[in-house]
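Progress against Task 2.4 (sequence-to-structure conversion) is shown through the following example record, which the project officer requested during the mid-term review.
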Amino acid sequence: MKKIFAIGLFYIGLAHATYAQMGANASDAKVSLEMDLAATITADGLREILTVLASDEYEGRETGTAGQRKAADYIASKFKALGLPTIGEDNTYFQQIIFTSESWEKIEMEVNGTAYRHLWDFYAYPTRNGNLPEASFKEVTFLGYGIDDPKYSDYANNNIKDKAIIIYDGEPTDEKGNSLLTGASSLSDWSTDWQKKLKTAKEKGVAMVFIIDPKLKENIQENRRFLLGSRMALGAGENPEENFANHLSISSTVAKDMVGKGFKKVVKARGDIIKKGKLKAVNIPVAVNVVQRKLKNQLIGSNVLGFIEGTDPKLKEEVVVITAHYDHLGTKGESVFNGADDNGSGSSSVIKVAEAFVKAKAQGAGPRRSVLVMLVSGEEKGLLGSQYYAENPIFPLENTVVNVNVDMVGRVDDKYKDNPNYIYVIGSDRLSTELHEINEVANATYTNLVLDYTYNDDNDPNRFYYRSDHYNFAKKGIPAIFYFNGVHADYHRPSDTVEKINFEKMEKVARLVFHTAWELANRDKRIEVNVTGRN
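Structure tokens generated for the chain above:
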């Protein structure tokens, strides 16, 4: 605490010096206007919004549910009341977010009555295979490397439509180790892009591809999380049924069992590839049964966009993005996870900050830069909404000056139980020292909160810097600041309810958010990225 207090004194001194400088560059009327605007952010106003967002009616606001959609509509109604333009899809305030997870419900392989184990003897990516409840083959065709190229083709003069094929990984080389495709020791994209073979097999009408993987154990270890396929991925999915032939990567042991007595013919065919530069396919009698039954879950939510266009003809092309996630955990049984602090508090704060900016513009006083106030969904699912925006931005990321993120600002943790006037600040100096200084000056000048940087430490075991929506902007090189009150006993529990919110503390934090965002939106020069090696 002493260290924090000492730092605070230093920045208060800096603030007074900066404030004096401000006086030389801005009239007292402008400073008074900023204070008047911040004063519109009140505890009562925050309570009014949060009481709605964290009510049982909104059913915990879990992304993809009716409760989340109700919350989105409510937020959109606030933006509409402010007269903000509909910059979202189909003339709405929404940016739809789509994420898909594909995983195996059941995956099996049997050769001549012997069952083999997934992630031990064979593997397959659910996102690159279509749903195949069951398939049986009485014959497998050895088709070399599964390549179809003007310089070398395994498919030439070989009819494999509706058949199962077994192929080697990589590509053929001559006796000197040079690729038959490149004529050199360097390999072609038939080796570096394994999916190319699957796309070709699909085009040729192949029913199933068995790929002999000499590094099977290593590849399983390195790609286990993708092979299990439980994580949500951006977009509607890869449509593997249309793009890839169903396939399994198999060990050399499984391949030998599959080839059986045809092994010598396969060895000869492979030798002929090297000597003659062409393949004679080998048909191998074998009983192979495969099951690839998938589970596919799609999550559809929406980010809610409130846009305040800047007033400066040049600076309005630059955008200050202010975010808070409005989703929470939904319901479990009869329990509603209302998420008053997480993150109804941040959402309510950001809506009130938007109101203050709109009032400023109505009075002909800015902001000079444009401001995008974005309430994002999918945070509890893995920062999905902010990731979606970062990959599909409404405004160019190169024009995005900063992200100001507000996530849990309505409670008091054990460390500050005797002093609620604090906030943890995370990330402010990771990419830009100017961002850090602006926030420090704004606090010392207007709000006088204790700014605690405990969780900003690179070695903080909680890793909060990587756990909220600002991180998807920081990954893109955009300076970001994250306001956070710390965890408490009600975190991610049904007991995170409105009556436990400290609205007076929340008011001060929301005003600090406004003052910092106001300076970022109105200063002559955009802040610079001047820190490397910490992101």
